[in-house]
């Protein structure tokens, strides 16, 4: 998908707890990626984000009340990029801190700049146990050298297909419906 306002092309693929994103920026553009670590449609009560080294971001977000169920959970994530940041910083919902490596706030986030690089790839993994678990999640699900293109439905990896099968197995057959038929009077 190419976003018309920015001209950035985005390619995404996933497994159950991992994903790969490729962002292709127009020539001459300063490639920037935002990580909204505290973003949740259900609201959030806590979030933390750490920039570790010049290619990685990890953190957690605590939320709940998913689908009005009154539950509470923490999701942990680990994101590794294929090239180093040329600049970075964090925000807490009120203040942007250039060069900051960590933030703890329900609205935690980070901006990452990569310069004029063309394409930036990110490997994303998550866990409900801890950040280290999120990092370990990547290894058994995706082989080394996997890219957003090679893992796409047109590629050879099959990651999206295996995730789709996993979801289908969890959805009762009675809940799977085809497109409703329309009739005219």
Contiguous runs where pLDDT drops below 50 for at least 5 residues: 148-161, 173-185
SSE ordering: EEEEEEEEEEEHH
CATH third-tier fold name: Beta-galactosidase, Chain A, domain 5
Largest sheet: 7 strands, antiparallel
Would you report the number of β strands? Answer: 11
Cα(first) to Cα(last) distance is 39 Å
| Assigned CATH class | Mainly Beta
Q: What would you call the structural class?
A: mainly beta
Overall pLDDT level: 79
By DSSP (H or I, 4+ residues per run), the number of helices equals 2
Textual characterization of the structure:
This protein has 185 residues and is mainly beta. The chain has a single domain (9-146), classed as Distorted Sandwich (Beta-galactosidase, Chain A, domain 5), CATH 2.70.98.10. Helices cover 12% and strands 39% of the residues. It has 2 helices and 11 strands. The protein has helices spanning 131-141, 159-170, and strands at residues 9-14, 18-24, 31-35, 44-52, 56-64, 72-81, 87-91, 96-98, 102-104, 109-115, 119-127. The strands form 2 sheets. Strands 1-2-11-6-5-4-9 form a 7-stranded antiparallel sheet. The longest helix is centred in the C-terminal third of the chain and has 12 residues, at 159-170. It is globular and about 45 Å long. The protein starts with 8 loop residues before the first strand and ends in a 15-residue tail after the last helix. Mean pLDDT is 79; it is low at 148-161 and 173-185.
């Amino acid at each position: 998908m190419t976003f018309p306002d920015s001209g950035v092309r985005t390619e995404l693929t996933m497994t159950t707890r991992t994903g790969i994103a490729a962002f292709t920026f127009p020539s001459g553009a300063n490639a920037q990626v935002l990580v909204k670590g505290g973003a949740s449609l259900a609201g959030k009560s806590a979030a933390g984000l750490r920039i570790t080294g010049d290619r990685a971001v990890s953190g957690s977000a605590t939320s709940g009340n998913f689908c009005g169920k009154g539950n509470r959970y923490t999701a942990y994530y680990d994101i590794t990029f294929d090239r180093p940041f040329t600049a970075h910083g964090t925000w807490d919902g009120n203040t942007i801190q250039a060069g900051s490596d960590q933030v703890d706030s329900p609205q935690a986030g980070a901006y990452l700049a990569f310069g004029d690089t063309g394409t930036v790839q990110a490997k994303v993994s998550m866990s409900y146990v801890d950040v280290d678990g999120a990092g370990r999640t990547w290894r058994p699900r995706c082989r080394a050298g996997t890219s957003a293109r090679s893992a796409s439905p047109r590629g050879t990896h099959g990651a999206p297909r295996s995730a789709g099968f996993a979801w289908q197995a969890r959805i009762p057959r009675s809940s799977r419906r085809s497109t409703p038929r329309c009739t005219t009077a």
